[in-house]
Amino acid sequence: MTLILVFLCILLLIVMVSVFRINAFLAFLAVSILAGIVLGIPLAKVVGSVEKGIGDVLGSLAVIITIGAMLGKLVAESGAAQKIAAVIMNFCGERYIQWGVVVTGFLIGIPLFYGIGFVLMIPLIFSVVYKYKLPPLYIGLPMLAALSVTHGFLPPHPSPSALVIQFNANMGLTLMYGLLIAIPAIVIGGPLFSRTLRNIPSTPLQSFVPVEMPEEELPGTFNSFFTALLPVLLLILATVFSFYTASHPGLKDVIALAGHADVVMLVSLFTATLTLGIFQGRKISGIMSIYADAIKDVALILLIIGGSGALKQVLVDSGVSGQIANLLKDLHMQPLFLGWLITAVIRFAVGSATVAGLTTAGIILPLMIATHTNPNLMVLAVGAGSLMFSHVNDAGFWMFKEYFTLTLKDTFKSWALMESIVGLIGLIGVLLLNQFI
User: Fold this and answer.
1) Does the pLDDT value for residue 123 go beyond 70?
2) pLDDT score recorded for residue 380
3) Cis status, amide bond into 156, omega within 30 of 0
4) Is the pLDDT of residue 211 over 60?
5) Which of 180, 214, 233, 373 has the fewest CB atoms nearer than 10 Å to its CB?
6) CB 152 within 8 A of CB 189
7) Cα radius of gyration rounded to whole Å, the chain
8) Domain coordinates of the chain in residue numbers?
């Protein structure tokens, strides 16, 4: 009976978000309180459980996500992202143009949130399409596949960062494993798959193409690449150095502090403030205005993540998470596959990759602990599942359709299928890594 109640609560969450279009944070909050009541948590402790869940998740993530948003916004506003794209396009030339847009989407997708990256890349995609007279989907889909994969797999994006915290995984290791899985997923779901879509008619709208910054106003090449990728470089370096400091406790503590995601993001932001801001002639007041706008962009994401933490904590405090773990263990299903499958089903129902991943976390966590599953790989398995089955309840589906002026049928054949391809390749990559780690 208890598990039926949990199922009904999750179903209610799905209906509230996908059918009635209720804000995901409010839906999480309402369902968490209701779940606490029906699952037997003492009434006086229900709100406390909800508050603890919100606080635990946001306490670990608020710095990463807000600073990540600030950094991404400055990379975009300063012209660094445009510079990165231009350099890669010039290097690759027309013959290897697809690979150029893939690399561009991947590098820019690491520091930028998906929505910002999508809008930022559209002008580049359209300019390449018109310059070389190539099919829009042949150019656009590979780049957007790269953006999507970085959004689903790699910290410091909101969902994988939140999963790292909830699963007690290692941010640097998750990033390194994620890079190994992301590359084949992008190649197969992007350049290879897009070659089957050349004949789909698409006429990108000129109204979606904003004016680009003049070349002389853009930051330098090294400055643009170095600043945008600094968080990734620092996380990887800290992870590598941590393997060589086991016999030096003092140095190990220094590396642990320097490599902590909060510190890495803060150092990266301070560096960007200088290299892409003050050294480019921007006033500090203008830079702070960019940062303030960035916080507005991610405020709702933070609330949704906090709401997911509330539901997770209710499941833990009620003891239901342990019962779910025991039930799932009896299915004799690979935990990584099960985490992927649950996430994919919720993604199909809700439409939001972030909501799907974070909802799954509270369900799969006890089983992951009980079976001693690698938490870094579980982050990636859930991330891969969160990219599956994009359709009409996903904002990304409609953005792609409208920007490329596609029919619903062609959007399913292109965007929806691409998302499922990268999700499946991600699962295969996780299962293969699990054989060697």
Assistant:
1) no
2) 95
3) yes
4) no
5) 214
6) no
7) 22
8) 2-434
Give the pLDDT mean for 167-171: 88
Locus of tokens 């290897």:
96
Tell me the residue ranges of DSSP E strands in 292-416: none
Distances (CA, A) of 239 to 147, 257, 319: 24, 12, 35
pLDDT digits (tens, 9 = 90+) for 393-419: 566 777 678 778 788 788 888 988 999
Count Cα neighbours of 160 within 13 Å in the Cβ-side half-sphere: 33
| Per-position b or e across 230-261, b if 16+ CB within 10 A of its CB | bbbebbbebbebbeeeeeeeeeeeebeeebbb
User: Per-residue confidence at 377, pLDDT binned at 50, 70, 90?
Assistant: very high
Q: How far apart are CA 365 and CA 339, in angstroms?
A: 9
Residue 309 and residue 15: Cα distance in Å, rounded? Answer: 19
What's the rounded Cα separation, in Å, for the pair 338 and 364?
A: 8
- C-alpha–C-alpha distance, residues 15 and 22, integer Å: 9
pLDDT above 70: percentage of residues in the chain: 86
pTM exceeds 0.85 for this model: no
pLDDT-derived band at 77 (thresholds 50, 70, 90) equals confident
Burial class (CB in 10 A: 0-12, 13-18, 19+), 195: middle
Residue-by-residue DSSP string for 94-110: TTTHHHHHHHHHHHHHT
Q: What is the pLDDT of residue 272?
A: 93
Contacts of 375 (CB under 8 A, 6+ apart): 167, 168, 169, 170, 368
95: amino acid identity, one letter: R
CA angle 170-171-173, nearest 5°? Answer: 65
Spacing of C-alpha 217 from chain mean position? 30
Residue in this structure with the two tokens 């998750």, named with its chain if needed: 174
Supply φ then ψ for residue 118, to 5 degrees.
Answer: -60, -55
> DSSP letters along 18-58, please?
HTS---HHHHHHHHHHHHHHHTT--HHHHHHHHHHHHHHHH
Q: Mean pLDDT in the chain?
A: 82
Contacting residues for 253 by C-beta, under 8 A, at least 6 apart:
none
Distance CA 299, CA 72 (A): 15
Q: Which amino acid makes up residue 191?
A: P
Above 90 in pLDDT, residue 316? no
Q: Return the sign of the alpha-carbon dihedral for residues 348, 353, 358, 364.
A: positive
User: What is the distance, to the nearest Å, from the Cα of residue 354 to the centroid of all Cα atoms in its chain?
Assistant: 7
